[in-house]
Amino acid sequence: MLDVRSKLEMAVGRRLVRMPQAWLDRLGTRLHVSIDGNSLDRRVKFALGVMHRASGGRALHDFGVEEGRVQMRRLPMLMDPEPPKVLRVDETEFDGPRGMVRLRIYVPPGVQGDAPVLVYFHGGGGVVGDLDTHDVPCRMLSREADCAVVSVDYGLAPETPFPGGLEDCIAAFRWVRDHPDAVGGDGRVAVGGDSMGGNLAASVSLATRKEDGPCFQLLIYPSTDPAGRTASRDAFGHGFLLEDESIEWFHRTYLRDADAADPRFSVLRAPAHEGVAPAYVATAGFDPLRDEGRAYAETLEAAGVRATYRCFGAQVHGFIHMTGAVPSAAAAMREVGAALRDGFARA
Description:
Layout: H1 4-17, H2 21-26, E1 34-35, E2 38-39, H3 42-54, H4 60-79, E3 88-96, E4 99-107, E5 115-121, H5 135-145, E6 148-153, H6 164-178, H7 180-183, E7 185-194, H8 196-207, E8 217-220, H9 231-236, H10 244-255, E9 279-286, H11 290-302, E10 307-316, H12 327-345
Parallel strand pairs: 5-6, 5-7, 7-8, 8-9, 9-10
Antiparallel strand pairs: 1-2, 3-4, 4-6
């Protein structure tokens, strides 16, 4: 829970990031950033400054696990819109590899009978994030794609280090696939996620391709080659929300003693990608993970997998949590939702 001071800071922050466009225009060139041919949305640039001040200039890795989880819950309070309405939200659980795994099911408005299902894995480096931090994005995807969304409360490190969380996600996909009546599914089951959730979705697709695997994978700024080093990691590893030091902290905490090059984690390094589900890979122009997301889409295409790559050049990592304050982020999420709808239509 937030204390009174924190609630006041969040209220002020919400007002600031939603300032009228005319006021923002007066700041002019002070908000202009252009790198690699991409220009950062000025409202995103301003929002980054507000978040930096709200966190006391500290990044997630500076807080540690428990405080970092609290900080992750604060971000949606700044820039998410009011939760979009869906028909209903249900919760259930199933017996997973290490005990019960909780699922939250979003049923789209106006649904007539069964619907396609997206099994969604939230981001947060495998260390932070939960069902609540990704409530609004899941609602948006349910509405935009007219599908049920099943959000998975997989195990987080350090309590559940790699590959525990991944095993939860594989089991969750299989449970949803095998129990369509429990989630209102029509037999079409896709997987998706953002950041580490995108990594998990890609890994689930690889792990289940020789069985009745997902019909589609929705990968939003996914981590695909944590063992490598890219130009975007060097260019955007400081000052654009996802800090390079935070990435390293996530990896250390998530992996413990495991090898970062394990293809279940560095999915780009899997020995083969043939036979996985068609994919839509979205990245952000000012994201340290941009280049590995693009490389993954290219690798899938080279393996004969239908893959669509889209870079939202004006955005940063985490733009799915900015849709209540940044119109271009909201537009990006609508496009992502349309891609998911198309993926189901072609399944």
